[in-house]
């Protein structure tokens, strides 16, 4: 059984940004905070903090911090000792949702002091952070729930293969000839982003030869408008560019629908239940 006073000392160092601030927050001496963390590390047989400025959690420390947050949420739901200001919700989501419809879902009127720590992973791989205990919920494209978890479908995000008119003219993509698409430069968000590969497999049975890796959703669109390459982009994010003619379909009529799912633990706190309902509502108005 873990002594939660030790976990609270570790959490205070991470949340306050240092040992001295944690000591002031907990009304302890700095030495007492340090001793509690050393005791925790001795019990576990490995470090929970990286002594940097500010201190950072190790992989184990992050999982323990996440566990403590879940305990705090359950206490808040039972109207026990949890302070709303102490509640931190860690979730991992795909970049395109974060850049379009998701932020509105994070505004919870019942929990105005709730804090979010959002990490971004490709929709095909984000679930691994939840499996490792690093986050409390995950928005991704995987329908199978984790052991001890549950999942709800949210809808699909529609992607289209787009480029600037000048790019299409430069690479002679009008009329669209699938056989030459793989020779044109392709924009890819990350190593895990396979949407462009799926597009080429669908229309030409091949893979891209030349790629640019651009890990920025906004930069991805700007690069396409500038003529650096073509790529798969969510309709939600490029409506204005399509209407203005800055971006056009490289294969008219083609679209790729990516399903999105919200993963959560079956032992769900009232805070996480409220968040799940808010996410579902926002998705129902934004996604197909």
Automatic annotation (TrEMBL):
Pfam families: HTH_1 (PF00126), LysR_substrate (PF03466)
UniProt xrefs under SUPFAM superfamilies: Periplasmic binding protein-like II (SSF53850), Winged helix' DNA-binding domain (SSF46785)
Residues annotated as domain HTH lysR-type: 2-58
Keywords: DNA-binding, Transcription, Transcription regulation
Domain of life of the native organism: Bacteria
One Gene Ontology molecular-function label: DNA-binding transcription factor activity
Family, as annotated: Belongs to the LysR transcriptional regulatory family.
UniProt cross-references to PANTHER family, sorted A to Z: HTH-TYPE TRANSCRIPTIONAL REGULATOR ARGP (PTHR30579:SF2), TRANSCRIPTIONAL REGULATOR (PTHR30579)
Name recorded for this polypeptide: LysR family transcriptional regulator ArgP
The species this protein was found in: Nitrincola iocasae
């Amino acid at each position: 059984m873990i002594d939660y006073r030790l976990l609270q000392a570790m959490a205070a160092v991470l949340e306050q940004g240092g040992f001295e601030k944690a000591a002031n927050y907990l009304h302890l001496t700095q030495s007492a905070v340090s001793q509690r963390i050393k005791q925790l590390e001795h019990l576990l047989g490995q470090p929970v903090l990286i002594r940097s400025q500010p201190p950072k959690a190790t992989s184990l420390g992050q999982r323990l911090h996440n566990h403590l947050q879940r305990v705090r949420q359950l206490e808040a739901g039972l109207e026990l000792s949890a302070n709303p200001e102490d509640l931190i919700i860690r979730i991992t989501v795909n970049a395109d949702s974060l850049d379009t419809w998701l932020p509105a879902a994070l505004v919870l009127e019942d929990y105005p002091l709730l804090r979010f720590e959002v990490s971004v992973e490709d929709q095909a791989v984000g679930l691994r952070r939840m499996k490792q205990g690093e986050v409390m919920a995950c928005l991704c494209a995987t329908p199978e729930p984790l052991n001890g978890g549950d999942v709800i479908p949210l809808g699909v995000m529609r992607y289209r293969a787009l480029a600037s008119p000048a790019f299409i003219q430069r690479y002679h993509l009008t009329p669209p000839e699938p056989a030459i698409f793989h020779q044109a430069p392709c924009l890819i968000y990350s190593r895990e982003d396979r949407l462009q590969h799926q597009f080429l497999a669908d229309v030409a049975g091949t893979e891209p030869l030349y790629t640019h890796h651009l890990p920025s959703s906004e930069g991805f669109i700007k690069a396409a408008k500038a003529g650096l390459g073509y790529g798969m982009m969510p309709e939600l994010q490029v409506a204005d560019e399509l209407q203005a003619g800055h971006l056009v379909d490289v294969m008219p009529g083609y679209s790729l629908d990516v399903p999105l799912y919200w993963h959560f633990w079956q032992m769900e706190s009232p805070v996480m239940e409220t968040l799940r309902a808010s996410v579902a509502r926002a998705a129902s108005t934004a996604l197909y």
